[in-house]
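Worked example 3 (structure in, sequence out).
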């Protein structure tokens, strides 16, 4: 190559360092540009063809190398529509090409950027500082699911949000095993229960009758006309046995039980009265109002009076006495029957409140957006401790202004029955309140969503309902207030009614050859054959709301490269000067 080759190589070196200086200059100029990716310079040596022992280093070629895969610092921002990416993807954007009839016109092509300083323009579009419009996928407001698969420019609407009628109430709670209502008294049997019979429900108590007609006026007969010395009978109420032992003479039988003397002037009615008193005293709370006597057919009759939960049995009856009374040995009572309280009148409202516990309250919405406050109360209607099963009814206040015999509280119509371990015996993942109407405002059918095991009955020292979930899906009409982009890439509009409606999903794109994207003005990139086609991500992964990605330019690093480039350029000029001097010397040889 000689002197001319050296001179040519030096010129390519100067040209390469000039290219490097241009990149450094651009990087420094864009050190504060949002989402900017610096350009590096790669040097490639160009070796001329020569024999192995005559090869020389040759010239140099400068090439630009992108750093699209190197992330800049993430900086927080108070603007809720600013977004950054904490991943290797890009936002999908599109430039506006004009206006037609007052509407923005777009080219329909996709560009890609890391610049996330998006703000809402006059048309309700999200545009960044370089004039590129954010693209995404619309969201179905009814389901919250993404609609479609082709990204489109996100357009926001500032129209009023129409009202949405409540169709579902999510309700989960724990009911206390022992509800401590206002009427609850630890010394009064079953005082924690509603007492359906006190609110107009038809209920029957457990009873058992003998089949023998003891004759008219049998109660006035002497006791020994029915009972005899040494006879026995046991009445077991809700697991508590009461043994009756009949005797004559001055010495009662030994061995316990209720001893009843038959000596005159005792009558049959006197014996029955003593049996009734003994049954009430020793038969437990379920027998507190038990009756023992003769029915209208002059038959021996036992019932539990006003207790509508427990049952009893008659056993251990002396055969002769069983025959005399017409009893089966053993004989079970009829099963008690609890009526269902469907409604509570205004006259009974205070008593109902005193015999139930609050289950919370929630505002629901009619189809026209009218808000309605739904108050819920739970009433325990039966109990395993009383001989039945743990059962509850839920009521809601249907008319707070009701008077007299008008309905104030309404049963939702679902029975909740619990096992001994506190779980529901009858699976109730959801219940439906049919034609929910409160204070004259019709809501319609509303589903109470409990999910599996959403309602339980565990012991609670306070005896109150613990509500863990209480929300609903309705809302009134609302005025548009603002827009924010969440960390999941959802564009969310906020309205004056407190609702936050997801309107669109930001789409991001990944590239296999990310550093082979073509750079365009405004910090955007276009796909090339070397970068490959974009791989769209609809999940919003890596999106950070209220943040911006800074330039990945490091000023100190750029100044370091600037010094190196300057020195390399100066060295190249020395080569040119030296080659020139050598050429002059060669020319001077002919003088």
């Amino acid at each position: 190559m000689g002197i001319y080759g050296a001179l040519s190589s030096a010129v390519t070196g100067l040209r390469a360092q000039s290219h490097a200086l241009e990149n450094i200059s651009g990087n420094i100029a864009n050190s504060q540009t949002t989402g900017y990716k610096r350009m590096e310079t790669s040097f490639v040596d160009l070796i001329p063809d020569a024999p192995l022992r005559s090869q020389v280093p040759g010239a140099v070629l400068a090439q630009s190398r992108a750093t699209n895969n190197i992330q800049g610092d993430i900086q927080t921002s108070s603007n809720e529509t600013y977004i950054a990416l904490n991943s290797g993807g890009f936002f999908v954007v599109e430039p506006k090409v004009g206006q037609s009839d007052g509407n923005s016109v777009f080219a329909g092509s996709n560009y890609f950027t890391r610049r996330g300083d998006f703000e809402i323009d006059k048309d309700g579009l999200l545009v960044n500082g370089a004039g590129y419009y954010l693209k995404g996928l619309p969201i179905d407001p009814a389901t919250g699911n993404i609609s479609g698969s082709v990204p489109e420019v996100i357009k926001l609407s500032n129209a009023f949000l129409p009202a949405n009628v409540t169709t579902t109430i999510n309700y989960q709670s724990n009911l206390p095993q022992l509800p401590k209502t206002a009427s609850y008294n630890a010394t009064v049997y079953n005082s924690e229960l509603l007492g359906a019979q006190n609110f107009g429900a038809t209920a029957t108590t457990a009873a058992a009758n003998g089949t023998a007609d003891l004759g008219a006026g049998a109660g006035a007969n002497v006791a020994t006309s029915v009972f005899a010395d040494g006879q026995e009978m046991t009445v077991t109420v809700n697991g508590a046995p009461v043994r009756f032992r009949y005797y004559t003479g001055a010495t009662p039988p030994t061995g316990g039980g209720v001893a009843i003397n038959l000596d005159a002037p005792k009558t049959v009615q006197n014996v029955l009265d003593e049996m009734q008193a003994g049954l009430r005293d020793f038969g437990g709370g379920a027998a507190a109002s038990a009756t023992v006597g003769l029915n209208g057919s002059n038959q021996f009759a036992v019932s539990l009076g006003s207790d509508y939960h427990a049952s009893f049995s008659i056993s251990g009856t002396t055969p002769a006495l069983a025959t005399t009374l017409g009893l089966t040995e053993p004989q079970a009572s009829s099963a008690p029957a609890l009526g269902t309280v469907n409604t509570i009148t205004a006259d009974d409202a205070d008593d109902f409140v005193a015999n139930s516990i609050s289950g919370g309250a929630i505002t629901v919405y009619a189809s026209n957006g009218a808000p309605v406050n739904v108050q819920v109360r739970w009433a325990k209607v039966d109990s395993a401790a009383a001989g039945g099963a743990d059962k509850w009814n839920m009521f809601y206040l249907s008319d707070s202004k009701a008077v007299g015999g008008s309905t104030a509280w309404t049963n939702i119509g679902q029975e909740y029955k619990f096992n001994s371990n506190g779980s529901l015996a009858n699976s109730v993942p959801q219940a439906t309140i049919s034609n929910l109407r409160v204070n004259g405002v019709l809501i319609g059918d509303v589903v109470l969503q409990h999910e599996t095991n959403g309602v339980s009955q565990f012991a609670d020292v306070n005896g109150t309902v613990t509500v863990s979930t209480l929300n609903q899906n309705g809302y009134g009409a609302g005025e548009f207030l603002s827009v924010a982009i969440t960390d999941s890439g959802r564009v969310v509009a906020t309205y004056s009614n407190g609702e936050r409606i997801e309107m669109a999903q930001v789409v991001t794109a990944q590239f296999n050859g990310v550093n082979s994207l073509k750079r365009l003005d405004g910090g955007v990139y276009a796909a090339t054959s070397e970068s490959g086609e974009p791989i769209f991500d609809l999940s919003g992964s890596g999106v950070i709301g209220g943040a911006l990605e800074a330039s990945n330019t490091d000023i100190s690093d750029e100044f370091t490269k600037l010094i190196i480039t300057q020195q390399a350029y100066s060295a190249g000029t020395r080569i040119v000067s030296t080659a020139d001097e050598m050429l002059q010397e060669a020319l001077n040889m002919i003088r």
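Notes: The chain has a mean pLDDT of 90. The first strand starts at residue 39 and ends at 46.
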